[in-house]
Amino acid sequence: MRRFPKRVNGDLVDSLGNFVHRTLHFIYTKFNGEIPTPSNLSDDDKALINQIEQVKEKVISSIDSFEYRAGLDALISLARNGNKYLTKNAPWELVQKDLERAKTVLFVCAQLVKALALLSTPYLPGFSRSVWQLLTGQTSLPQRPFEELKTTLEGTKILEPKPVFQKIDDKTIKTLLPVETQKTQVTLQDFQKLDIRVAQVLEASKIPNSKKLLKLTVKIGNEIKTIVSGIADQYEPQSLIGKKIVVLNNLQPAEFMGVKSEAMLLAAEDNGSVSLLTVMRDIADGSPVH
């Protein structure tokens, strides 16, 4: 709890939010809301733009390895570097003596703002949508946001920017954090909404370019489904083929590393050790679990 206001006020407000607002506000007030077209990029400009690709790879690898904080830290670091670049180049001074250079600096910053919006999608979807709307006027994010990183926005008219984050105090924190740490009790009717079934693993393989993700093809009664699960460091794919496991069958599908997962296997975890839930007797796949 002590670290929560520091993360919000320091990382989100002062680093991420501050860089986004400084950049867009300057473009809106000094360039009539139009992202400028750059002239020649300096080595510093190119170095900062190149960091976008590096952070993208860090975000992907952190999600792949379930080390989500590492990816978010990389994003915050990119925003800090953007703030340093903006302060160092001081476009508010350049507009008076070197307009072309000022345009280039603001173009680079706008590219960084766009990258921060797109790369934040897995962590801060609300922030991503808000900034994307400011940049493009579109209310929804691209279906494949990381593929938009290489596009440029010169000539694009932005909306009037507003701060995307607000500082919080202790009083606000108390309203945000839960009073109880125990899980909320559910009713029998809530539990009955879950379609938990026995499934048989037909195929299992590692997902390319992923350290922890396995792709399982399972049979659940008359259905054949694909499941993506982060258990590659716990189980060899071949050891799972033919096994009867327990799955949540009516979970909303989600996509991981380009593979659609249509159910979720259930497992117990103890200090990093994972054990899949299975059945003690031979029972038909598709059988309900109560």
Automatic annotation (TrEMBL):
SUPFAM superfamilies in the record: Anticodon-binding domain of a subclass of class I aminoacyl-tRNA synthetases, Nucleic acid-binding proteins
A single GO molecular function term of this UniProt record: ATP binding
Subunit structure: Homodimer.
UniProt name for this protein: Methionine--tRNA ligase
Catalytically driven reaction(s): tRNA(Met) + L-methionine + ATP = L-methionyl-tRNA(Met) + AMP + diphosphate
Stored Gene3D superfamilies: Isoleucyl-tRNA Synthetase, Domain 1 (1.10.730.10), Nucleic acid-binding proteins (2.40.50.140)
Key words of the record: Aminoacyl-tRNA synthetase, ATP-binding, Cytoplasm, Ligase, Metal-binding, Nucleotide-binding, Protein biosynthesis, RNA-binding, tRNA-binding, Zinc
General function of this protein: Is required not only for elongation of protein synthesis but also for the initiation of all mRNA translation through initiator tRNA(fMet) aminoacylation.
One of the record's GO cellular component terms: cytosol
GO biological processes: methionyl-tRNA aminoacylation
Enzyme class, spelled out: ligase
Entries under PROSITE patterns matching the protein: TRBD (PS50886)
EC annotation from Swiss-Prot or TrEMBL: 6.1.1.10
InterPro entries from the UniProt entry: Anticodon_Met, Met-tRNA-synth_bsu_C, Met-tRNA_ligase_1, NA-bd_OB-fold, tRNA-bd_dom, tRNAsynth_Ia_anticodon-bd
Sequence ranges assigned to domain TRNA-binding in this UniProt record: 190-290
PANTHER family listed in its UniProt record: METHIONINE--TRNA LIGASE, METHIONINE--TRNA LIGASE, CYTOPLASMIC
Source organism phylogeny: Archaea, Candidatus Marsarchaeota, Candidatus Marsarchaeota group 1
Compartment(s) of residence: Cytoplasm
